[in-house]
Amino acid sequence: MTVESQERRTIDARKLDQRIRHETIFNEFKKLNEGETLDVVVDHEPDHLLMQMEHVGLPVNIEKYYAEQRKDGVWVGHFVKSAENDKGESVIITDYDRSRSYNERRFTAVPVFSNDKYGVLVTYIKAGQFIPVHSPDVDLIFHVFKGTGTATVDETEVMLKPGSLIIVPRGKKRGIKATTDIEGLHIVVPFPSEGDHEEVERKLASGKYA
Prior knowledge:
Number of strands: 14
Shape: globular
Distance between the termini: 36 Å
Mean pLDDT: 89
Strand content: 35-45%
Order of helices and strands: EEHEHEEHEEEEEEEEEH
CATH architecture of the largest domain: Sandwich
Largest sheet: 5 strands, mixed
CATH class of the largest domain: Mainly Beta
């Protein structure tokens, strides 16, 4: 269901079949003019949707993106269309300070670049937060720039500190818990699908790490 106004559209993703959910949202976003907004109603925080839109090359303005949770527990993500871009053809230069974004409720993964082969993110995990243990069909490279904590890698738990490097093949368990605020470079090969992300969202919603 889509509701339109002069400068924004609203789509309730909960009413869409999961098999066509992303495609439908992307098509609605493409209809926007520069500066207009697509409001997407979902059951959980829609940060992963932002990453997917970046991954497929949609011109979404990351700086103007935000999400809010209504009193009934439903989330609404606000996606603003920027000027069309030539994704993948520009040099990207950023740093941890520029990308820094901590969320009081859960870890934050800030998309930096993605294509058909891999995705690059900068991830921020506040002390006490975690990335739940999950086993996606994705290879992982995670390098700790700042902070301490523990990681579950397959069946092993390891300590994390600045300089720690984790490489986990697809299908193997991985998860991270922060003792102090962690900032890290997060590379995934290939970029996770919506199905890969479901276990993470389910465990975050229930507060379960493992």
